[in-house]
Amino acid sequence: TCMMQSAFTQFEPNYDESKVPQFEVPDLLTTFNGEKITKAEQWEDKRRPELLRFFEEEVYGRVPGNLDAFSFKLLEQDDSAVNGKARRKQVAITLEKNKRSLNFNLLLYLPKGSPSAPVFLGYNFHGNHTVTHDPKVLITDAWNENNEALEISNNKATEASRGKRTNRWAIEKMIDAGFGLATIYYGEVDPDKNDFTDGLHALFYKEGQERPETNEWGSIAAWAFGLRCAMDYLENDGDISKVVIFGHSRLGKAALWAGATDNRFAGVISNDSGCGGAALSKRQFGETVGRINHSFPHWFADAFEQYNGKEEQLPADQHQLLALIAPRPLYVASAVEDQWADPKGEFLAAYYASTIYGLYGKAGITTDELPAVDRPIQNTLAYHIRSGGHDVMDYDWEQYISWAKKLFN
Ligand code: GCU
């Protein structure tokens, strides 16, 4: 429609480095009141909480209360998955609030032969059955975005889409390296459409409420909440030692926010998360705040809209989101052809966040010069820019696995 036209021209993306505005990077070590801090304790007592509150109130939105009940049920398990190398479990998780409930299924592959293993936990975009050809994996009946290549139509997944996204999930490589995988279809937690009548939000409404309040959660915060609920299960599953959360793109934004809000996650991997994820908003390169709020009005708190086209007024930027994860291991990854997600902005955010890793004596990114393509920097805070486009490739998983092996295994 003409309305959309004008908003899109208003937020025309810039891909020219020389047109990136001059801006001051909000300082990690100066509080909103101007107080300078120098130590990890001051970061934890003063600066970290106020930054967390900013992202909660003005970016992703606050979760309005706690669940009334949480339960889970093992649906099935089998010892002969992944060519006999892994055990598969499928677990139904039920969340209850205000006499309403929501169910989502967790698919787990765990390496056999080790008493407890670290796992990667990550949402998938179209259903657990798409990440593997395994015929036993249950097909989701939640709302699904149509996708011709994946053979999903009428907003429902069927047998036809089984195994269609195996390219994004190097499961056998994880298992061979001693890691497990836990994955969930994100649409079971909150369907990815601008409709607040369904999914997690609806459980929390007061009588007569139809959408979240201005400072309350959008879908990214709801997906992050779902990851924390999955963690409530995983920390009680004796087969699992540590949980590293992973997410691609919009689900990378959710993984970062989950990692920032819950320190039970031992590490975080952001794959091409871009605007509202790892990329600095103030660069206004590729996707911008105004553009993302226009295209995906349900992702962030409504309060975030005050910064549409006004990035210079943001009192904090995404390097400060990354810093909330410190000193836990964090991997930020970009792809060179994914300019929409601003690889350089993702890199610089990791570089600036390194200040806080330094407070804890952990190594981060020590140069502000973007590394060469396919030349990872793997410290506690890691970064790579891969050749190719917006995707998750074996190359990415190979890096995450080798890095995680050093840190978690
Ligand atoms: C769109 C959106 C991005 C997002 C991406 C994805 O391109 O603009 O912000 O990361 O979808 O989730 O694949």
UniProtKB/TrEMBL annotation:
A matching Pfam family: GCE_fung
GO MF entries: carboxylic ester hydrolase activity
Gene3D superfamilies tied to this protein: alpha/beta hydrolase (3.40.50.1820)
Residues covered by the 4-O-methyl-glucuronoyl methylesterase-like domain: 214-361
Keywords: Hydrolase, Serine esterase, Signal
Name of the protein in its database record: Alpha/beta hydrolase
Source organism: Pelagihabitans pacificus
